[in-house]
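To fix ideas, we reproduce below a protein record of this kind.
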Amino acid sequence: LFVIEIVNGKLFHVNNASAQMLGYTVTEMMHKSYFDLLPKQFVHKSAEVIADVWENKGMVFSDIPYLHKNGEIIQVECSAKIGSFEEHPAIVIYARDIRERLKYERAIQEMNKELTEKNKDITDSIRYALRIQQAVLPEDDKVQKLLPEHFILYKPKDIVSGDFYFIDSIKTNDAQKLICAGVADCTGHGVPGAFMTMLGSSFLKQSLTEPSVNKAGEALEFVDKKLQEALRYKEKQSFIRDGMDITFCALTPDLKTMHLAGANHVAYVVHADKKVTHHKTDKHAIGQIKPEGFHYNTQSIDLKAGDCIYLFTDGFADQFGGPKGKKFKYKQLEEALVRNSDLSMETQKEKLAATFEAWRGELEQVDDVLVIGIKV
C-alpha cells in the first residue's frame, strides 16, 4: 500500500508489505518519493498515469514496474484511487507482486506453443493419412464408367473416415460380369475408424479374386473371417469388439438384377412410381463372433428402368438438428430420397447435402455420413 501526494509524489504512508517487497525498511522508504521507487525510464509515464488516476477518480494498470533496492525489476499490478491523507489530496495505490503469476503465464504460453506445434504435426499426419485412405477408394473415372448414373455423398466427421465405399467389377467363375457396390461403417470414426476401413476395403477387394466366392453373401463371409483373424488377440485368443456394418451388392451390367447381402444395414429401392421397397440384411456385424453355422444371406432382386438404389450408413439418420435438436432418423431420410428420386443424380446429391446441412445447423456433425445412389 502506497499513499502519495498528488503534486510531487511524496510518500505520505507505506505499509510493511510494500517495504518488504522492495527490500527497504518503512523508515527508508519514507525518505523517498514514489518516483524514486520506479525505474528511471518509467518515471515520466508514471506521472502521466497518476494524472489520469486523478482525472478518472481511479485506475488499474500493470505496465509500470517497481525497482527493488538491489536493482531488480519487480512486475506489479496496481489499482489506484483518489483520497486524502491528513487533509491533503492523495492517491492510494494498492500494488501486487505479479512475478509469480507472469512466470506461470509464460510457462503456459510455452506449453500452448508446444501443444500447437504437436497438434499441427498430428493434423499434418492425419491429412497425409487421408491421402492414403482416398487412394484406397475407387477412382471417380472408373466409377463413372461402371455406373453412369450415380452419386456418392461422402462427408467424414473428422479428416479421415470410419465409413468407406466400394465399387468395382468382377467376372464370376462362369464368366459372368458383375458390378459390385457397397457401403460400410466401421467401428468408430476418425483415425481408429480409418484403420478399420483399410482392413475392410482390402479384404473386400481380395474376396472378389477368391475362387470360393461366388455370391455377395460369400464375399461378406470371406471378409468376416479375415477381419476376425486380423482382430484376434494372439496372447488370449479372444476377440475385440470391433467390426463393421455393410451393405454389399453385385449388379448385372444392365442393372436389372441386384444380388444383395449385408450386415446390420438396409437398402432402399425407390421405384419409378415413388413406391419404396426396403431390403433388410442379416443382423450380425462383420468381424464379430456369430452363431455356429451362420451364413450371410444373398437376396436376388429384380429392378426396372427408372428404379433408384440407395445404400447408406447410419450417419445421416443419426445426425442431431432441426428445431428441437433431435435425430434426423431413417423416415425423414426415406422421404428425402423419394422426393428427389426423379431428379438427376447430381441434383439428388446436392439436395441431399443441403438437407443434411440445414438439419444440422450449428450443431456438430456426430458421425461419418455416406449415401450412394444408383439409377437403373
Notes: The chain is about 35% helix and 30% strand. The two ends are 85 Å apart (CA to CA). The CA atoms of residues 205 and 315 lie 24 Å apart. The longest helix spans residues 99-136.
